[in-house]
């Protein structure tokens, strides 16, 4: 029997290097905080067209991990009495609305932080770089259709976090980025966190890539428009993400002893607010909460144009992990490194998912055309005893003028338990799908990749 004598960090680094090569990802950084020990490393290159070695301090777009920073800013404003979780959007923005009258009248800060608004959340537009960029975005939300009633079910919502940024500006009279810097980034010493290219372009940073087969290519545009700041614009490195995570592990206290967030704010962020999947996964305030091997983990991922990131922490084990990569397949890389890290550092073995057969009746129930207006639609059909999905992109990211991404080849959906399926192959492998039912047991919603999709009959 061969005994592995490598330190867990050395073993994880070797694993990460192998994964980057196997997945043809140009570059990545990985960071681990385990108790008082912190480890970071860079792999590969920043840019295939103009390559520089990725260092631990290389800057990557963290995408939607930004939402947790926005939540922390909101909690600071709650601590100072400028907002409450129960504050209605219209208390600060009386003219704000979406297409649904009830949601427009009753939506609160809580609904926004928990992705329980119910309106279309993937709304990517450019409202300019001026001071009212977030206000202009909030006004355009009047176009958004309601996909589920307010508070009915979790459905991931980017637009809600832009609106939160607008509320921050209304409550403080200051630009969102300035409030975030003053209340969170500067107190934590996160000097390498940026919201725009102008402040980072003199430093080493990664650019996005699209992976096709065994090759990768640089893709543009690089950044998000200004209105995207509260939902996904932060650029950071692995050490700073770990500093942020360790503050949350330490009940809001920075490493220098300063109290950045009140302990009750951190506890609120880490308290389940609504279920995502049965009793195993819930949404807190911005953070996703998962129970694994008797421990509670808090995590958030992020994906921008050709970059992706993952941040996770476990208070019970004083553990955190950060993964940042410059490819559109970064999510698969992060899942693989996360699984290995939990094994190497915590001795937690994530089980392999096994597939269950579906009856013809179950397959027919799932068949349909599922639409995210402005973004894409997915046609799901049963073919030769399999459930096959085909996604057609109809809108671009990060703006409505960006050409849609190339459509992926059809993929297989496999059932892993009753009403939960997973994409089993291809670039979208690992994407979770949930069948949500009404009280009579009828399928009410189909949630894919965290988003409730509108169902239309197949042609």
Describe the structure.
The chain has helices at 8-23, 66-79, 89-92, 101-106, 109-113, 133-140, 158-172, 176-188, 229-232, 238-249, 263-269, 330-346, 360-366, and strands at 27-34, 37-44, 60-61, 209-212, 215-218, 235-236, 274-277, 281-283, 288-292, 295-303, 308-314, 319-325, 368-372, 376-383, 386-393, 411-417, 420-423, 432-437, 443-448, 451-456. It has 459 residues and is of the alpha+beta class. It has two domains: 1-351, DD-peptidase/beta-lactamase superfamily (Beta-lactamase), CATH 3.40.710.10; 360-456, Lipocalin (Beta Barrel). The strands form four sheets. Strands 2-1-12-11-10-9-8-7 form an eight-stranded antiparallel β-sheet, with helices on both faces. It has an eight-stranded antiparallel beta barrel with strand order 13-14-15-16-17-18-19-20. A two-stranded antiparallel ribbon has the order 3-6. A hairpin with an 8-residue loop joins strand 17 (420-423) and strand 18 (432-437). Helix 1 packs antiparallel against helix 12, helix 2 packs parallel to helix 7 and helix 2 (66-79) crosses helix 8 (176-188).
């Amino acid at each position: 029997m061969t005994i592995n004598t490598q330190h867990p960090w050395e073993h994880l680094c070797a694993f990460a290097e192998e994964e980057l090569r196997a997945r043809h990802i140009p570059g990545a950084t990985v960071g681990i905080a385990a108790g008082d020990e912190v480890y970071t490393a860079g792999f590969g290159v920043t840019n295939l067209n103009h390559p520089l070695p990725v260092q631990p301090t290389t800057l990557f777009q963290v995408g939607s991990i930004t939402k947790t920073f926005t939540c922390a800013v909101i909690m600071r404003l709650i601590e100072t009495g400028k907002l409450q979780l129960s504050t209605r959007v219209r208390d600060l923005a009386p003219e704000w609305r979406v297409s649904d009258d009830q949601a427009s009248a009753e939506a609160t800060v809580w609904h926004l932080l928990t992705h329980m608004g119910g309106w279309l959340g993937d709304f990517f537009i450019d409202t300019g770089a001026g001071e009212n960029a977030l206000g202009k975005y909030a006004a355009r939300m009047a176009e958004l259709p309601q996909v589920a009633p307010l508070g009915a079910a979790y459905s991931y919502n980017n637009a809600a976090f832009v609106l939160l940024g607008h509320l921050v500006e209304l409550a403080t009279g200051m630009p969102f980025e300035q409030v975030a810097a003053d209340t969170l980034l500067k107190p934590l010493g996160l000097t390498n966190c940026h919201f725009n290219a102008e402040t980072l372009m003199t430093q080493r940073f990664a650019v996005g890539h699209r992976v096709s087969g065994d090759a990768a290519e640089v893709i543009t545009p690089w950044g998000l428009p200004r209105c995207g700041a509260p939902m996904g614009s932060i650029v950071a490195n692995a050490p700073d993400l770990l500093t942020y995570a360790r503050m949350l592990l330490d009940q809001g206290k920075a490493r220098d002893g300063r109290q950045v967030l009140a302990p009750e704010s951190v506890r609120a962020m880490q308290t389940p607010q609504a279920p995502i999947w049965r009793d195993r996964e819930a949404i807190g305030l911005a953070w996703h909460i998962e129970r694994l091997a008797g421990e509670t983990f808090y995590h958030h991922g992020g994906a921008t144009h050709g970059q992706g990131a993952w941040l996770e922490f476990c208070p019970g084990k004083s553990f955190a992990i950060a993964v940042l990569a410059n490819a559109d397949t970064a999510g698969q890389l992060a899942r693989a490194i996360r699984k290995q890290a939990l094994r190497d550092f915590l001795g937690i073995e994530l089980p392999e998912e096994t597939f269950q057969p579906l009856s013809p009746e179950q397959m027919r129930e799932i068949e349909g055309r599922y639409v995210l207006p402005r973004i894409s639609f997915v046609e799901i059909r049963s073919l030769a005893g399999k459930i096959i999905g085909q996604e057609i992109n109809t809108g671009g990211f990060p703006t409505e003028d960006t050409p849609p991404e190339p459509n992926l080849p059809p993929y297989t959906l496999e059932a892993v338990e009753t009403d939960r399926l997973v994409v089993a192959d291809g670039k979208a492998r690992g994407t979770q799908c949930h069948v949500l039912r009404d009280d009579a047991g009828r399928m009410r919603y189909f949630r894919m990749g965290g988003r409730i999709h509108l169902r239309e009959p197949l042609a």
